[in-house]
Specification:
By secondary structure, this protein is an alpha/beta fold. About 45% of the residues lie in helices and about 15% in strands.
């Protein structure tokens, strides 16, 4: 697909871009207005927005759990964004909202508890470095000084025979003085290092399994140094290609604020924003720090630092009781049997609603929440309905909810959840809630 079919390219084409946006907006709203009383609509966001794929360009450089597909943010900015508007995401993950905002020329602010956001954002917006990739990898493999992560379980996650190779590769990374080369190397090296670990990469959380043990066993049967070299070259070439693709979208060098490693439940915006678009954690579906900690250890974080971040995750922290303005919230709560599951449920909604309600006071125009109906003990929880009820009671106008069926997954289904011994119920749909300040 030619890039002119994807996004704006030059100032001469800006009027055509505006016409295309207007047509899409008219067609879309015409469909939604068929029934004024029906605010929930089944859609395919992938079809509503002209964008090649969910992993095109640097939107696909890192396997972040439950991340935004770019089509969601592109849809919002194409249909609701106006010139001069700024965008905010308090649960930014790997930074999808920021990447899309640059394409549409909007300033933005991103927060996340996971400190890896800052690195991922820098890598994703960077122009490709002019470097001989094969020579770079050979220098990585020739380096002799080791970097051992400050991780008490290092030996558990890495086979002894592979530890020196990985430690010396990361020794090279940490010794690099050229920040642009170090950033370029970081994500490919993280991906290959995880492949050489005992982590089962098909699971949502860091975990060892018979499948992952078999993978490492097969690696050890091969010339694993050659395999490491080959994989790292491939990953670097892939990143270089994706960075070129992102630059072909003509991103604008807008004002951006990145706050990584921060607690969104306690932080406040320092200036008003026009649009808040976010995908908050889905109940217990993801433990982001548990999934990310292997990468954080390689990047230089300590056991103590990672444990402290993990304690701050929603819903695994005690929060004071607040008034959640939703009848659905109370109705669902009554059917949760186990007390400890009820505590998780309460803390989740206390955390998410308290955070989003407080931040919404500094949002001038729109709130967009993208959530799935995650399950607790096999029962889907209508997070979208609960958030909609709460915020309409606060005075926001609910314009519509778009229901998008999940068509692909990186993670496999357990069949039976090993933690609960119950059928593993996957999130089938995701819901984009559109709320407007009256």
């Amino acid at each position: 697909m030619e890039k002119s079919d994807i996004m704006h390219e030059t100032q001469n084409e800006s009027s055509e871009s505006e016409k295309r946006k207007a047509i899409i907006r008219q067609v879309t709203l015409r469909e939604f207005d068929k029934d004024q009383n029906q605010k929930e609509q089944d859609v395919s966001l992938r079809d509503l927005v002209d964008f090649p794929s969910t992993t095109y360009s640097t939107f696909g450089i890192y396997n972040y759990p439950a991340k935004f597909i770019p089509h969601v943010v592109n849809y919002v900015l194409e249909n609701y964004g106006e010139e001069g508007m700024t965008v905010f995401d308090p649960f930014a993950g790997c930074g999808t909202v920021g990447l899309a905002s640059r394409i549409y020329g909007h300033g933005y602010e991103l927060w996340d508890l996971n400190p890896i956001l800052e690195l991922l954002h820098r890598v994703a917006i960077a122009a490709p470095v002019n470097i001989d990739i094969v020579s770079l990898v050979d220098h990585v493999l020739e380096y002799e000084e080791s970097y051992i992560p400050k991780w008490s379980n290092f030996d558990y996650w890495f086979a002894e025979d592979l530890q020196n190779l990985l430690a010396q590769s990361w020794g090279f990374y940490h010794a690099l003085e050229d920040e642009s080369v170090r950033d370029f190397l970081a994500v490919p090296l993280l991906k290959v290092s995880r492949h050489f670990s005992y982590d089962d990469m098909g699971r949502m959380k860091l975990s060892k399994s018979p499948k992952s043990k078999a993978r490492v066993k097969e690696i050890l049967k091969q010339d694993w140094k050659w395999l490491f070299r080959s994989m790292l070259i491939d990953e670097l070439n892939d990143l270089h290609k994706k960075q070129k693709e992102y630059q072909s979208l003509n991103p604008v060098d807008v004002e951006a604020t990145i706050r990584a490693g921060v607690d969104s439940l306690k932080e406040s915006l320092r200036e008003d924003r026009d649009i808040l678009i976010t995908s908050p954690p889905y109940l217990q579906s993801q433990e982001y720090m548990r999934q990310a900690k292997m990468d954080l250890f390689w990047l230089g974080y300590s056991d103590k630092e990672v444990k402290q971040l993990s304690k701050m995750e929603i819903p695994y922290r005690d929060l004071h009781e607040i008034d959640i303005k939703s009848e659905t919230y109370r109705r669902v709560r009554k059917v949760i049997g186990e007390e400890h599951i009820q505590d998780v449920y309460d803390n989740y909604f206390r955390g998410v609603t308290q955070c989003l309600e407080r931040l919404s006071t500094d949002i001038s125009t729109y709130l967009f929440f993208f959530v799935g109906r995650s399950s607790m003990r096999g029962r889907p929880v209508p997070i979208d309905t609960i958030l909609t009820e709460h915020f309409t009671q606060l005075g926001w106008t609910h314009e519509r909810t778009l229901v998008d069926t999940i068509v692909s997954r990186r993670m496999f289904s357990y069949g039976v959840n090993p933690a609960t011994n119950q059928r593993d119920v996957r999130t089938k749909t995701e819901h984009l809630i559109v709320l407007k300040r009256p």
